[in-house]
Write a structure and sequence with these properties.
The chain is of the alpha/beta class. The protein is built from 10 helices and 7 strands.
Length: about 240
């Protein structure tokens, strides 16, 4: 019985975040103190607008990325960037050293960067929002099992571009607990296409990541849910135990 209040607390926090995502709004998510210790703005990719992109680049300031599930990326024929470098390393051996220099928190989820073919430069709020919504739509097609999604991806996008793609680890939170996996799982819980837009919040004063307390203050001022990554990870574990 002593565990119930903690579980209910996590559920209510997650439900608030899920409700916000369903409304097409931004959620703040802090990963963990002993990991990146960063807070990201998160929104479901299918709901992104140019104004969301504007807010992310002005109020967050980090790299605006699109995260998707591992199986979805495979259906689209998308590789991890480390795999691309591995192949390129056969011709340019020095690139192999880049792969061996992984971040302290584990393997990077970076894939390629793209622009939709209907964009101009690709960097404007309008262009990035268009690219992201088209990615979300194509990911939805892939999840539904359309056979020609690889061709559709190649014919509708160009690379390199201004929208960075991320591929969650196979098994999501079971294998890696980063913003990529946490945000995709949250969108999945919300019944949305499990593709998210994430952007790190940076601090103008220290020139580092925005401290979690400052991110919480921002969330309170703007009426945005603030959720801890460990809450999502704990909820995931509870759900997995319930299926066994």
């Amino acid at each position: 019985m002593a565990m119930l209040p903690k579980i209910y607390s996590r559920s209510s926090t997650i439900k608030d975040a899920i409700s916000t995502l369903k409304q097409g709004k931004i959620v703040l998510m802090h990963d963990m103190d002993d990991r990146e210790n960063e807070t990201d703005m998160v929104i479901a990719a299918q709901n992104v607008t140019p104004d969301h992109i504007r807010r992310m680049r002005k109020d967050a300031g980090g790299l605006i990325c699109v995260a998707m599930r591992f199986d979805t990326a495979r259906k689209l024929g998308l590789p991890y960037m480390s795999d691309v470098l591995q192949i390129a390393g056969e011709k340019y051996p020095h690139l192999l050293e880049l792969i061996n220099s992984q971040a302290s928190y584990g393997r990077s989820t970076f894939s390629i960067s793209v622009n939709h073919r209907r964009t101009f430069t690709g960097i404007t709020d309008l262009d990035r929002a268009l690219t992201i919504k088209k990615i979300a739509r194509l990911c939805d097609f892939a999840i539904q099992g359309l056979d020609d999604v690889e061709y559709r991806f190649a014919s509708n996008f160009r690379a390199p571009g201004h929208v960075q793609l991320l591929i969650a680890s196979d098994g999501l939170i079971s294998n890696r607990v980063g913003h990529t996996e946490l945000s995709v799982y949250l969108a999945q819980l919300a019944g949305l296409t499990p593709v998210t837009v994430i952007c790190e919040m940076l601090d103008d004063r220290s020139h580092r990541s925005l401290p979690p307390k400052s991110a919480q203050d921002y969330a309170k001022i703007h009426g945005i849910p603030f959720i801890e990554g460990y809450e999502v990870a704990s909820y995931y574990k509870i759900q997995m135990r319930g299926k066994t």
